[in-house]
Amino acid sequence: MCLAIPSMVIEIDEVHRTGKIDYLGTKVKTNFALLDDVRIGDWVIVHAGFAISRLDEEDAQETLDLLREIAEKS
Amino acid sequence: MARTNEFRDKKVIGALLARIAENKRSLPSPCRIMEVCGTHTMTVHRYGLQSMLEKAGIEMVSGPGCPVCITPGEVHEAAIRLVTENENVILATFGDMTRVPTHLGSLQNAVPAKGSAVKIVYSPEESLDLARQKRNKEIIFFGVGFETTIPSIAVMAKAAAGEELSNYSILSALWLIPPPLRAILESGEVKLSGFLYPGHVSAIIGQEPYAFVAREFGFPGVIAGFEPGDILLGIISILDQIREGRPRVANEYTRVVRPEGNPVAQALMREVLEPKDACWRGLGVIPGSGLKFKAEYSAYDAEVKHDLRITARGIDLPGCRCGEVLRGILPPSRCPLFAKKCTPESPCGPCMVSFEGACLVHYKYRGPKS
Questions:
Q1: Chain A neighbors of B233, CB-CB under 8 A
Q2: What CATH topology corresponds to A2-73?
Q3: Which residue of B123, B153, B202 to mutate against A (max A Cβ within 10 Å)?
Q4: Cα separation, B222 vs B236, whole angstroms
Q5: What whole-number distance in Å separates Cα of residue A37 and Cα of residue A52?
Q6: What is the mean pLDDT of each run of 10 residues along chain B (370 residues)?
């Protein structure tokens, strides 16, 4: 049930708080009731048809930098 | 931004494993880490991390993190009865739930009553759509899940109430992750060095609900994501916590998990549901470990609406030892039924059914002789 891969928001119906995400190239119907202020272009984690969290790009970059640093030191 | 490849990069994984092996050398053995979440179990085995970590002196143990698995047989049987004993009922549920074997067979093999059917859905929302479209049928959503799924089920109950849908109810099996961690630590059955906390449950609940693990039991823990790099970073954090003698709730999944979790989801859960003592397969009754609908939503609670009297005992079918697998005391391959009588084609228990069940994951990625 966990789609652990981040997906991009591509359509929003603000009245019903639903829309679509691009999950690895497939458009998937998604409910946005659990997140405030979702915008097109946001990256989200979707679980069982509901977006549960928005990805933070800066934090993602920090983790990737840390991984690279460990790889370079070895 | 998906950039998942970077979290799977061979050079990065090699360097992380080398760091783990180096850090482990200075610590007393053994180092046994429980991955609480079934999706973590999948990553650990799918990418072959288990055997690489073993070489580094780290043993990974699966925990109770598969909601399909820990739901007691009696609840699955109640779902089967609903669709076999009542006409014009559509029982909607996630695919894995239809294959769990019980004393009454499985939902997949059940013969529905006249006009009734079992329908597999991907999202709880599909069950509500069914109720809107098929007003002459009673739609029952058999909703199972941890904190990751629970808010969406709360949204469904609220929407059904708002639309006054009289043909919709939810048979809920809603489980909270922190209470069984306490139960596992209190029982002391499995000697652990730390927990990998589930990333997406944590996206909802945040860090605080795990604080007791370090505070009361002195155990390290880390919230980790689901890529191989995430899990290995998490293990490095646990080793650091042991070495420094400073157990805490670390968060290595900051790109998704905020310290406070998801306040919108938490508010919805509090509005619609309330805690109850719940019985887990293998673990028995754990205080405050489940959620039930509040009285004002009882019209949508299938247990109330259909007068189901479920007495769960959480005991496996004869021969099945899923309960011990879920407690982390029996590796799947040591179960006498594993890969013999119990296979993915013909499962004897839920851990061989669910795609995040420890037995299926072992079978799939390590082979029947694992």
A1: 63, 66-67
A2: SH3 type barrels. (2.30.30)
A3: B123
A4: 10
A5: 13
A6: 78 94 88 94 93 94 95 98 98 97 97 98 96 98 97 97 97 98 95 96 98 97 96 97 97 97 98 98 97 98 96 94 95 96 97 96 86
